Amino acid sequence: MLFLTNISVKSRLNSWIETPLIENMPKNIVLMEIEKVTWELEDTKTLRLKWPEDYEPIYKTGQFITLYWPDCPKYKRAYSLSSSALDRGFFEVTIKRDGKMGTRMVDWAEEGQKLHVIPPVGRFLPVFEPDKHLVCIAGGSGVTPFRGFAREATQSKLTTRMTLLYSVRTPKDIIFRDEFTALEAENPHFQFQVTCTRADEADAWQGRRGRIDADWITDRAGNLSTAIFYACGPTTLVEATESLIRDTLKLPKEQIKLEKWG
Ligand SMILES: Cc1cc2nc3c(=O)[nH]c(=O)nc-3n(C[C@H](O)[C@H](O)[C@H](O)COP(=O)(O)OP(=O)(O)OC[C@H]3O[C@@H](n4cnc5c(N)ncnc54)[C@H](O)[C@@H]3O)c2cc1C
Known about the structure:
This protein is an alpha/beta fold. The chain folds into 2 domains: about 5-120, Elongation Factor Tu (Ef-tu), domain 3; about 135-260, Rossmann fold (3-Layer(aba) Sandwich). The protein is built from 6 helices and 13 strands. It has helices at about 10-15, 100-110, 145-155, 175-185, 215-220, 235-250, and strands at about 5-10, 30-40, 45-50, 65-70, 75-80, 90-95, 115-120, 135-140, 160-170, 190-195, 210, 225-235, 255-260. Strands 1-13-12-8-9-10-11 form a 7-stranded parallel sheet, with helices on both faces. It has a 6-stranded antiparallel sheet with strand order 5-4-7-2-3-6, sandwiched between helices. It is globular, with a radius of gyration of 18 Å. Flavin-adenine dinucleotide binds near residues 9, 10, 77, 79 and 94. Flavin-adenine dinucleotide (FAD) binds next to helix 1, strand 5, strand 6 and helix 2.
């Protein structure tokens, strides 16, 4: 069954995550080592968090974990998993330098350091039914959970169609460009489409330019009745996408899943 997942997660989380009472925390918080750090862009980093021995969490692709540093337990922030639930032994999150936690993670996190991890939760889950078409709409770092979606669909050789419509300022802002291109080559049901909103005229970018609009969505989605739309990232992009789908395309809320980062 489909349902609208319009969670303003950050606002919901804030009341919970800023509690100063460490003893009231859920018991299943796990300390994990940063096993690997990968620079994706000059302001964006992927952290691989190694599961401790015998840790076998049950979770789903598309969920988020909540992280905090041992020296600052009051300050917790949510990060979507950019790995899939079929990747075992670690979680990966991909973080943009933004705000206090985003800056600390990108500028200071190093291999060998440890972070507290509140296990995955969330309902921004891919519906991998064969007759559905997942149309995933992302801006900037909002693409992170869709790497998990595309990985799982490809790893499991699913026949569900998935189209990623990704808006970035310029070509150098595309996160996971090589991986999405490789997944598209491997998986005949996955399409990776990018639009650049601020590529200047001299830029050699051959792809689409301009904002995500209803015409582009309609053109790429094809049969709208089987589409399930996912939008993730900063609130402005997610709300603009929701309005395009609901008000312009007149599709019901059951076909829309949203993850707002606040
Ligand atoms: C479910 C969920 C999943 C998420 N997944 C990801 C993810 O995969 N990757 C990712 O990078 N982020 C993700 N986020 C966002 C992340 O949780 C943090 O909010 C983010 O890293 C910013 O850190 P912060 O909250 O400490 O920023 P804060 O310091 O609280 O700042 C919040 C915002 O205000 C702006 N700001 C701060 N101070 C000023 C000022 N003086 N003037 C103007 N603007 C200011 C900051 O630039 C920032 O945009 C997710 C959020 C949620 C709720």
